[in-house]
Amino acid sequence: MDWIGEEMGSVSNMPHETREVTLKESVVIESEGKKLTFNIVDTPGITTKIDYEEFLKFKSMSKKKSKERAKEATKGVIDSIKWLDNMDAVVVVLDATTNPYSQVNITIIGNLAARDIPVLIVANKVDLKKANFKKVTNAFPQYPVIGLSAKKGKGVEGFYKEIFKLVK
């Protein structure tokens, strides 16, 4: 769900569920008497490896369909990278239950730093026992990091405060 309670895209256990860039314009958030209007560009996750065989693990997907999905996912990653040229600020959402030092995360953050784009890192899933917020903050000390549970809505007000700081 996005900020106004509408679905931006579907979610599932299958990798690369989001394969196309989605744009939502004129989203408004208010926090502590301040108001911010912005556009959300929800992109497919940037990855360094997309293998059609990943999809074959799901019984419902044929080899032909798996190859199509891999091709769509690859195009989505390329489109995501192209969109970086049009960003005023970026919120990078990382799973706090996994290792933040992955090649993909370092590549994304490096890309944003090279473009001098302001970044806020969201350590998502902090409500889970496996979450390690400190590891995320240690991985990228040059950026503000906020803990959040998107599923439970925990940390949203702190997230809003950081967004306002990010865009000044």
Overall description:
The structure is a single chain. By secondary structure, the chain is an alpha/beta fold. The chain has 2 domains: 1-86, no CATH class; 88-168, P-loop containing nucleotide triphosphate hydrolases (Rossmann fold), CATH 3.40.50. The chain has helices at residues 53-56, 63-83, 103-114, 133-139, 156-167; strands spanning 22-31, 34-42, 90-95, 119-124, 145-148. Strands 3-4-5 form a 3-stranded parallel beta sheet, sandwiched between helices. β1 (22-31) and β2 form a beta hairpin. The longest helix is centred in the middle third of the chain and has 21 residues, at 63-83. The protein is globular. The two termini are 25 Å apart. The model has no long low-confidence stretch (mean pLDDT 82).
